[in-house]
Inverse folding.
């Protein structure tokens, strides 16, 4: 187990160094950071002085490792657009994005998993056909269109839910949440549905396909021949084996929810990291863009590591393979 974890950690370090290299490249190939800071009208002598002060006159390799060292030490730099430390900006925006992504993931899993199980057990029923049609819409419709349609129906026509913002938030130390206020919960409903709809359809179709495949295997037929009830066979044997690939998809999709919440946050003006990144792109705020890429990469690596460990716990075949490889 320890060797397995150390191997995954070593791979995570290599991936993060590669992500840091991509983020560092933004400073080299997306404009001149000195000009972005002081403008083109600044005298050349002043630009040279700032460049030396920021160590931008050093070799590229030295600048890269200095960039990595600053990130590891928690020095993320300063936003060129606002002049506020990037760490402070991320700390203010991260709770909103995580809250939206987690609620959207729970919604997708809580609705998509039962729908997938039902359509796998009863593939020819009318309700299954209705679920498949809904999942097709969830996969086909763009995220921004789903959000606009929800705003038009629930906000403009019915006036039931707010169309933008996060509502009232409660501060719990450095953390802020809208789950503890009525307006916060109302503001969260439509963005969470919008962001989680594609994942819901993906989970439903994956669970359906896995259930149909598992129900045709020999050990399921043997379980039925032993006289086990349909409930025991479907949920005690079939569903348990179906969840193994679902764990991978759900884990990676949580990272995707965080990374690709930009469109949803833009449609609903949700004050999260996605909206911050979009504003940084509009104003060419390269330091914010670079740190956002590093943070998203770190979240993906962390989630992938957790998924690998869950795989190791859930699937006994991995433990057997690890022991066999150690013995060989």
């Amino acid at each position: 187990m320890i060797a397995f974890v150390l191997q995954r950690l070593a791979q995570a370090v290599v991936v993060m160094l590669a992500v840091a290299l991509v983020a560092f490249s933004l400073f080299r190939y997306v404009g001149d950071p000195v000009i972005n800071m002081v403008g083109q009208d600044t005298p050349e002598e002043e630009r040279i002085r700032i460049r030396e002060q920021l160590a931008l006159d050093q070799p590229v390799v030295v600048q890269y490792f200095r960039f990595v060292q600053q990130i590891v030490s928690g020095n993320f730099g300063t936003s060129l657009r606002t002049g506020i430390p990037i760490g402070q900006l991320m700390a203010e925006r991260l709770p909103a994005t995580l809250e939206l992504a987690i609620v959207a993931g729970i919604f997708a899993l809580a609705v998509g998993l039962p729908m997938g199980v039902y359509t796998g057990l009863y593939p020819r029923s009318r309700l299954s056909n209705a679920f498949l049609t809904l999942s097709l819409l969830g996969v086909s419709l763009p995220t921004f269109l789903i959000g606009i349609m929800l705003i038009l129906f629930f906000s403009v026509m019915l006036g039931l839910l707010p169309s933008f913002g996060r509502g009232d938030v409660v501060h719990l130390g450095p953390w802020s949440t809208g789950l503890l206020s009525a307006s916060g919960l109302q503001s969260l409903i439509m963005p969470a549905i919008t962001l989680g709809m594609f994942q819901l359809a993906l989970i439903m179709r994956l669970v359906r396909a896995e259930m149909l495949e598992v129900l045709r295997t020999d050990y399921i037929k043997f379980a039925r021949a032993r006289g086990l009830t349909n409930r025991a066979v479907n949920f005690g044997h079939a569903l348990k084996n179906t969840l193994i690939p679902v764990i991978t998809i759900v884990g990676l999709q949580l990272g995707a929810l965080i990374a690709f919440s930009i469109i949803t946050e833009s449609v609903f003006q949700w004050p999260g990291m996605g909206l911050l990144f979009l504003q940084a792109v509009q104003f060419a705020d390269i330091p914010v863009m670079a740190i956002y890429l590093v943070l998203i990469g770190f979240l993906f690596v962390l989630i992938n590591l957790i998924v690998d460990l869950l795989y190791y716990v859930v699937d006994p075949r991995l433990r057997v393979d690890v022991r066999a490889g150690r013995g060989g």
Residues 48 and 88 are 29 Å apart (CA to CA). Residues 86-121 form the longest helix (36 residues). The radius of gyration is 24 Å.
